[in-house]
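Re: weekly structure request thread

Next one in the queue (430 aa):
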Amino acid sequence: MKKIYLRADAGRATGYGHFVRTCALAAMLKDEFDCTIFSAGPDDFQRREAAGVCPLVALPDDECRHEQFLSILDGSEIVVLDNYFFTEEYISELRHKGCKVVRIQDFFEEKSSADAIVFPCRDPRRALLRQPFFSGVKPAGKKAGRWIIAIGGTDPLGLSEHFKQEMEQRGIDAIVLGGGKNAAEVAELLRSAEGVVCSASSVCYEALACGCKVCAGWYVDNQQDFYRLLCDRGLILPLGDLRSAVLPEDPGAAPSDPEMADEMGLAPKFYRTLFKSLELEMINYTALTEARSREVWEVRNLEEIRKWMTNPDPFSFESHSRFIESLRTRKDKEYYAFYQDGKLVGSFDMVNIIENDSAETGLFVNPAVQGRGIGRQMFCRMESRAHQLGLGTLRAEVFKDNEKSLKLHLSMGYRATAGKDGMQYLTKTL
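Done, posted below.
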């Protein structure tokens, strides 16, 4: 099996969030990949979290850890980086060794040159939750009025106790979620509660997956982007800055979405598809050899491909070559060919690209490999390319009669918006 090495350091001072979500990712992938987690000076909590998921390898708890990790690699691995201190220079070193690199990012980090970029906070369908939160157990047996206080970290400001006292003064049963509990214990506790008061962190998604109402705020700057997203999507009752927040008269008025658990249940399939996609060779049309360029032209001209294109007429290889040559000076169009074991499996493009804004997408899958999940894999890779360009919206136009393509787009998060003249318009928010 392909090796995946996951890197995330943690501790009581810095928090365990990044480490916990790498464990969650490893749990999603371990049946199809050979996963190992690496962390600097792991403590007992980290060892417990990794136990039963995959091996945990300790790195030195100093600056030597980065070099030591590099020395372990032979270049065949997929490396996952999850934390703020992995620089672009370090990513370049990993890729120079031959590794594919996946960067797990939050909201405020710089653009990355990693082979794949994922933002688990942006979309519940990308949430990196631990297995007990994906158990499929629907919320049941909840105790009306029981609330969990889950500020997270070491809570140096004593916010947990503050909100607990405020709730108890109103006659509301409140429990502080302290450290030391494993994922199964946390999930069981959340499933027994009506709601949660927490900071804008992974606890929000854990609570939503368990059917809880959520009142959330922030108390450190790096929580603000996630907080705004939760507010914009109407997933929480907003509290603002927790350092000065006052609970609403009726916390139970927080929104509730019974479909949320099902949405989050899509995450494991997405991540398995993403990591499989890294074994595809992705080549810009402008870097294709003449032989490969001719192969793309031949497949694109197949009648079963052409009939679903806005221009269904055959075209010459000379015309195809001129088009590729024009792409060398265009920044508003990108076309990529995908190969598996040296064989062309498909093509994906983005056109009308407005950097840091939006683009229109299109694709075709070689009929010889249709039905093998190649389209989903190409979508995953191109989503990362869209992240590199800072795009927030992708659009597509698909013939309404092209049921396979419509189903694929909808499964990848596109939503139907309108349509005319036999076309269906779709939009995806990244």
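The CA atoms of residues 170 and 249 lie 9 Å apart. The mean pLDDT is 91.
Next request, please.
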